[in-house]
Amino acid sequence: MSNTTWHRVEDGLGVRDTTYARVDGVLEWPTGTCMQILDTPGFAPFASETAAGVRYSRPPLNESAIRQAIQSATIATAPGLTGAQIMELQERAIDELRRRGLLNAP
Fold it and tell me: pTM for this one?
């Protein structure tokens, strides 16, 4: 999705229904949730995460960002590790996040 399209979604400007369906997928919401938010005043997809009339959601975990964070942290704290060891650490962390249901399969 382009930055322009994403900004249109954030600003409440019109986009295609298929765009909202993609946003639902990225946020791991049931298909149609974005449309329901638009069509139903006061609708909150997750009432437990509503505070003083403001809705928010956690951004989905991004595998690439996780890998970069692990690499940066490893280099900063254990500079003697080889590239292969850092890659193994990344794989194990990604596998663990998937096992816990925090990261979707590729």
Answer: 0.45
